[in-house]
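Moderator note: this is an archived Q&A kept for reference. The question asked for a predicted structure of one protein chain; the sequence and the answer are reproduced below.
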Amino acid sequence: MKKNLCISIILLTLLPVFGFSQVPETGVMPVTETLEVSELFVQPEGFGWGNDGDNLALYSTLGTIHKVLGYSAVLAGISAGVFNPAVVSKSIHTTLGAGAAALSAATMGMGFVVYSGVFSPDDGVDSNMVHAILGITGGTMMVITPLLGGTAHKVVGITGTAVMGLSVAAK
């Protein structure tokens, strides 16, 4: 019973990936309305992703992947907390926790790939900067949680998941 429940939660965690995997016949994800009007994505010639349509479509697709990874990381972290060793076997908790750590590492990596060069300290603090700071802080905590033991494992895991969840909410 517990094993089936854990498998169900893992599959539910992955559902957003399958929901966003439908690529139109053109072979690229459509550019969202927000992406078209946002000044955040306008960069100087020869810097970053550029402003042409092909790069913008790729940028939008990678941004969507970053978003799906982030949601999945938070959901996996919550699942690992709910299905702790007091409730289920330690192997189920360990599997969910390792998945949460891997997803948060992938989320941060994709964030660096897609959004590096977009932020500047001169721009001040906006919702994107808050999202990045909270995401990196929470994601790093989630990645190091499996390396800790005892009370530190529990506190860092819960706090990391909560901070990464706030990062998603701040966006």
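Archived answer notes: The first helix runs from residue 2 to 19.
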